[in-house]
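Methods, example record. To illustrate the input and output format used throughout this study, we show the complete record for Heavy-metal-associated domain-containing protein. The sequence lines were provided to the predictor; the line carrying C-alpha cells was produced by it.
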Amino acid sequence: MKKSYKIDVDCANCANKMEAAAQKTPGVKDCVVNFMTLKMNVEFEEGQDPKAVMAQVRQACKRVEDDCEIYL
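The corresponding predicted structure is encoded as:
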C-alpha cells in the first residue's frame, strides 16, 4: 500500500534526513521525500497498519529533525 503525506520541512538536507529515517522504520518498504512539493510518499510492507507505522515514522523524523512536521 502506498500513501502520500504533506510535510513541513525547512531545507532539502532536512528532507533527506527525514527520508533516511523513514526508510529505516520497521513496516516501511520504501519512502521518498520531495522537498520541492513538500510531500512524503510511503510504501508500506504487506499487512502493516499505516497509522501505527506512521506514528513511528513521525518519531524517527523528529529525532533527526525536530522542527519537521508530517500531516497524517
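Annotations derived from this record:
The chain is about 40% helix and 30% strand.
The mean pLDDT is 96.
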